[in-house]
Structure prediction request, 660 residues.
Amino acid sequence: MHISEGVLRPEILIGGAVLSTALVFYAFKTLKNEEIPKTAVLSALFFLASFIHIPLGPTSVHLVLGGIVGALLGPRAFVAIFVALFLQGILFGYGGLTTLGVNVFNLAFPTLAGYFLFRLHPHTLWKKTALWFCIGFVPLGLSAFLLSLTLALNGEAFVSAAQLAFLAHLPVMFIEGVITLFALRFIEKVAPAWLEVV
Amino acid sequence: MDQTSHPPITPCVALLLALVYGCTIALQTHMYVSMSLILFFLAWLKRRFLLIIFKRLVMLNTLIVFIALTLYWQHQEHLAGLMLLRSNLMLLCILLLFHGCNEFTIAIAMQRLALPHKITTLFFFTSKSIFLIRHELVLFKNTLRIRGFTPKTDLLSYKTLAGFIGTLVIKALERSVALQKAMLLRGFQGEIYTLSRRQSLSSNDAIATLLTLISLFWHQGYLL
Amino acid sequence: MSCSLTMKNISAARNGVTLYNGITLNLSHKEKIAIIGPNGCGKTTLLEMIAGLSLPQSGLLELFHRPMRSLDDFKTVRTMIGYLFQDSDNQFLAPIVEDDVAFSLLAQGISKEEAALKTAMMLQDLGIAHLAKKVVYHLSGGEKKLVALAGVLIAEPKLMLLDEPTNGLDNAMQQKLVAILRKIDKSIIIVSHHREFLESIVDKIYTMTQEGLHGTFNASNPQKSYIWRTYDGHETTL
Prediction:
């Protein structure tokens, strides 16, 4: 999910950095003191999602949980994901510092889709199921698309890698969708107050 | 762990070095042997942990090698080599600098860098949450193991794991409410303070800074 | 007699369910009391109302002779109240022990030098000076409780609210906590279900039921027999 250090051309690194700086800066400037706790705990959740492995046949994939984080945080997700990716880059070498801009944009921007989907009011159970699946599926799908697009923009030689990367993410999107759906259902059953849209 | 026991390189210096080294290497189109100078010094400082660090580097290389192979396959040898070298230099730099650091070390380093209070507060609260939520994660994994439950690719496993994710989310949100109460009760004024004075820099910090600059601007031993 | 706290006919609800109607309680200066009751009966809610985290549905709440009608009213008394969370992890704001203990002082604008001195003395008093530079979250449950307590005590509150202070502590640590709390010369309300622990500290024990606070038990005078009603309605003679 993260693009590693040293892969991308300077133009793309700088472009990503500028874009993310603007978005993170705006989200950060408007962040109120009383919103810091919620942003912090969901940033931590995003940070730790990479360590939750879901079995998939003989291998396993890790979760991203961007949809849930986006649904609960809205535009604040930019700040949360920035902090989480910064710490992942420093402590584990996932992504890194120079690619932080690109990775924050690729992962945080799509979570806005999770936010908007979460605010729709489905009237039937079937629609709700589909919607909640999409809260997981769509942001990750968009992230995978942006990741592939970034690689493709990096040069013609990277197009095949970009295509393979997108294909590799297809099963992950479904898993993220299913887990998000069941996780939201679980929260609805146990503590529905947290899912109330304010 | 005692956060004030001195790591070989002061964390806030390490942050700055990683940033300068990374940003400069990322812009290079030709590589020189001299660029690894700083890494040798850091490797010597972390000599007891080199095996662990290299294992981690190999693991992180899977994706990079995969991309390099697709480039090599298209006869872009120079690009493939450049990418591999750049990636590994930058990754190794970060791994060597921050081995043994945890989320709290980084948060404290952010505070020492005198960034805006809101961002350091966020780093403090995020590191706290990481610690507490990770604890829940470990407990859950242990519970599964004790019950002899091995997650498989089936609906039951997915539902079990999703239930756990749901629990984590609820607990995380409850923690955020508790944290908000603590901020109110303890008179939070927009800042997390520290009693310690400005950290004095060690000779290792000075040597590392000097070597980083030499690595970046003294090009010797053309590689590609 | 000066009163730290006066509650008259306080009622509260949680998620639309009434927890209690008509709690009445007077706490005089430097009086130590305990409130016991089953889980979920609203003990923590009561403490949170006194601390100004939530408002009662109805009734009168006075702190230090000042009526508290809105959450804003609590601003004036905030620094006089110390609150100890049930889960110590929730208490901490700074990751290093000494920084967290000094937090209230520094937030009030006291100089670093003075705060450092007071913090060192406080840690010394509680016997945890050796923990000063540690990360709070890495400590044992008992050590965390003492650090949290130090962070509350250092602000010199007039009224202390302790939520289940013995939760998860071993016997030795409970004894230590008893010794510390007995020495504190302030108004204290302890919420707990640990009667043995309470008897050695407080002047009165209240039992909380839906109807209000019942019966008192004077622990400082153990020769006398007292009758108080437990939460399940049985009358017990001591």
Summary: Chain B has two domains: 11-104+199-217, 116-185.
